[in-house]
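tool_call: predict_structure(chain=1)
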Amino acid sequence: MTMLGALQWACAEGGIDCDNISYGGPDYYPNSLIAHASWAFNQYYQANLIDGAVSCEFGLVAICNTNCTKCQATPNASDAALGAALTWVCGPQGIQTCEPIQPGGSNFLPNTTQAHASWAFNVYYQGYKCQPDWPSCDFGGTAEVVTC
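tool_result:
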């Protein structure tokens, strides 16, 4: 089974409501197959974890990793440094759009540079954290990996 096939299965026969990863949904970004598949596979796994049974194979295109990590802005980073990092991560070389942290967006509140940077940094990080030798959570020293 391909990753796309497994994603389609999880969102149809698997019974997972995948509206969150559709355009405009709160988990649409990062807009990549691996990010959307990871979200759907996790939803399926969480919904079907009964008495220790593991429901995380999907034709060998997924693995279970219980070590949840995320990327967030460091508490001591200045607004100026975070703003520069946000400009990069929201640009064409990063996640390309930060609509959810714009006024009216699903992640606009709290309206702080720290919160907006943490959201954007984590979206970027989740899309690239499994790529070897890729500095996916640094952003000029303004970010750090933390356990969920």
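agent: Residues 1-66 form one domain. Proceeding to next step.
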